[in-house]
Specification:
Layout: H1 17-29, H2 50-58, E1 68-73, H3 81-91, E2 94-95, H4 96-99, E3 100-106, E4 111-116, H5 118-124, H6 128-135, E5 141-146, E6 149-154, H7 161-172, E7 175-177, E8 184-189, E9 195-200, H8 204-208, E10 213-220, H9 223-230, H10 232-249, H11 256-267, H12 287-293, H13 296-306, H14 316-321, H15 338-347
Antiparallel strand pairs: 1-9, 1-10, 2-7, 3-4, 4-6, 5-6, 8-9
Helix pairs in contact: 1-11, 2-10, 9-10, 10-11, 12-13
């Protein structure tokens, strides 16, 4: 309470915060773009923006369409570009196909020749010997190196074409350098002159293993990965921040308390749940509330089979049957003594 007797609560008791939050987010959401885009000609990663990203978050998709990370570097090296480039070489995933200029495959004999590109190997700072050593760890093949050509031969007497082809595809997709899942890493310069990375792809566990990375300066837009590595509270904060960032990028302003309420509702059970029928809305205690959202017949049928009872304590179910809802003045119950009521009637 304040000194003048007024309360300093941000929300009055009985206020329909859910409805206010839904309208505060839903109305500006109608003005958001319906596609993902990036600036042509600029060396940057592609990210999902606008309404598709909002839907991706509230639907609790297991994997974002365009996962990305922002990675800060240790203060000792974040202004030294040469050392930053050394970290970059350990970060960006390099596959065999990334350094191959061409390849020949013979499915009948189970032999593939991979011709390496000198320019690409110099760019990534990798040698043919290193690539051959990485591939030799695979149990199903024999590896021989001759200059810039690596010869792959499938082991075993039975060389079915399907098996041979699958092995060749696996070889070309093998990671020989960098962190698995980081398809692209771009060096960015901050306003203070320090360098950091923006990546296409996300792998927090792998990035934490690299020397020179600031462990407290890693940001990923993959909500489920953040929950797995850092916990549910970190995932809750990420949901709220990603919603706010996506909306602000459209030039729209929404109060953070509304976005925080959505994030809290999605994570308060200790797991990430979607807003729709497969999550929060589909798990409501009230039969009428579930049926009012989607799949009406299904919910009524299941309720009748299992003998469910609806206590009519929520908002949606009371609106459905025309009963006063327990929100705002609907939460206030007044009683008047008979003597007082007689006095009031006399005055009238």
């Amino acid at each position: 309470m304040k000194e003048n007797g007024e309360n300093d609560y941000k929300v009055s008791r009985g206020e329909a915060v859910g409805v206010v939050a839904a309208q505060s987010i839903g109305e500006p959401g109608t003005q958001m773009v319906l596609r993902s885009f990036h600036s042509a000609g600029i060396s940057s990663v592609i990210t999902t923006t606008g309404l598709p990203r909002i839907i991706e978050i509230v639907d609790a998709r297991k994997k974002p369409k365009f996962p990305m990370m922002e990675i800060k570097l240790d203060k000792k090296i974040n202004r030294n570009y040469e050392k930053v480039k050394e970290v970059w070489k350990k970060l960006e995933e390099v596959k065999v196909s990334s350094v191959a200029s061409d390849f020949d495959e013979d499915l009948k004999t189970g032999v593939m020749l991979i011709h390496l590109s000198k320019e690409k190997m110099e760019h990534y700072g990798i040698t043919g010997r290193t690539i051959a050593a990485k591939l030799s760890k695979m149990e199903s093949i024999n590896v021989d190196q001759d200059g810039d050509t690596i010869k792959i031969k499938v082991k075993g007497k039975e060389r079915e074409i399907k098996h041979v082809r699958t092995t060749f595809v696996h070889v070309l997709g093998s990671t020989v350098m960098g962190v698995h899942g980081i398809a692209k890493a771009v060096v960015q310069e901050d306003e203070d002159g320090s360098f950091y990375f923006t990546t296409s792809g996300s792998n927090i566990d792998g990035v934490l293993q690299i020397d020179g990375i600031d462990a407290e300066g890693i940001y990923s837009n993959d909500i489920f990965e953040v929950m797995r590595v850092y916990g549910i509270e970190a995932a809750r904060n990420l949901i709220a921040n990603e919603l706010q960032k996506t909306i602000n990028e459209e030039g729209i302003t929404v109060g953070f308390r509304h976005l925080a309420l959505v994030a809290d509702a999605m994570t308060h059970t200790g797991a990430i749940k979607s807003i729709g029928r497969h999550g929060i809305a589909g798990e409501k205690e009230s039969v009428f509330a579930r049926a009012a959202y989607e799949e009406t017949v299904k919910h009524f049928t299941n309720a009748s089979i299992f003998g469910e009872i609806d206590t009519l304590k929520g908002v949606a179910e009371n609106i459905l049957i025309g009963k006063q809802i327990g929100v705002g003045t609907g939460r206030v119950m007044l009683t008047v003594k008979k003597d007082e009521l007689k006095k009031i009637k006399k005055k009238e």
